[in-house]
Amino acid sequence: MRALVARRLEGPDTLELIETPIPEPAAGQVRIKVAAAAVNPVDLAVSAGLAVQFGLTAPREQFGLGWDVAGSVDAVGSGVDLTPGTTVIGLADLLGRSLKTHAEYVVLDADAVAPTTLDPVAASTIPLNAITALQALRAISGQTVLVTGAAGGVGGYAVELAKHQGLTVIATAGDQDEDLVRRLGADHFVRRSADLATAVREIVPAGVDALVDAAIIGVGAQEAVRNGGQHVHLQGGPRPPHLRNITVEQLFLHANRRDLTELVELVEAGAISTRVAETYPLQDAATAYRRLAKGGVRGRLVLTP
């Protein structure tokens, strides 16, 4: 099979599409024939050495790429309740594996996979971003939430999910993204060019109950949170300081079927959306990576075998 890997860790221009044996599922695992796999900013980061920064070494001297996948179950290990032919979405949440979802086949733990009847290209844009937003919102309480990076993948889902939960959402993004963010459900929009804390406190003078910092602004966004509020930090490395008794939750997502199933059901019910920007064949993956690196993509770029 063909699979996209990073060996030189110098970014999109050094990615390699290799031929490698089709992997076999072990007990508790499924093999998926990939129909579509989204490209995310974390893939760019891995191609430039993110896993090494976390102290991981490269199995087979290569890092696999791709977190999201949609396709069909091709083979199963023992103890798995899914059958070959089932259409699924899945999430490869391990950072340092030699083969991941930007390939023709991928093996995942069965609990990282959920059945779906959604179009595979659209479905492949759900797992990483939506599960991150879902788990971020589970980490907060209160009635008002500030979402930064609201036009992006995680931020957009955070806006939709927060509105579905009945929260009042204040969202910030680029000036040109206001129409998009309001369509996603934001009650209030703050332009990225504004002083964020000042603008938010004009809407909620005491500060919002919680912050989902999808844009990784840090303390500058935390200034908009009330004393004793909550800040969900969506990045590895040092966490922001606990100022004014604000609780800082550093989130690293974890794949599980319960959450993936919930997200599929929310898409089917029209509560959250899928967002496909463009599709590229797997052999043109480096082009997709370079396009993402240029910035300004709204929605996900998707690779198809």
Describe the structure.
With 305 residues, the protein is α/β, with parallel strands linked by helices. Helices cover 26% and strands 29% of the residues. Helix 4 (127-138) packs across helix 5. It is globular and about 60 Å long. The model has no long low-confidence stretch (mean pLDDT 96).
Structure characteristics:
single chain, 305 residues, alpha/beta, 7-stranded mixed sheet, 6-stranded parallel sheet, 10 helices, globular
Major sheet: size, sense and barrel closure? 7 strands, mixed
- The ordered string of helix (H) and strand (E) elements is EEEHHEEEEEHHEHEHEHEHEEHEHE
Number of strands: 16
| Low-confidence spans | none
Structural class: alpha/beta
Summarize the amount of helix as a percent range: 25-40%
Mean pLDDT: 96
Distance between the termini: 10 Å
Radius of gyration, rounded? 19 Å
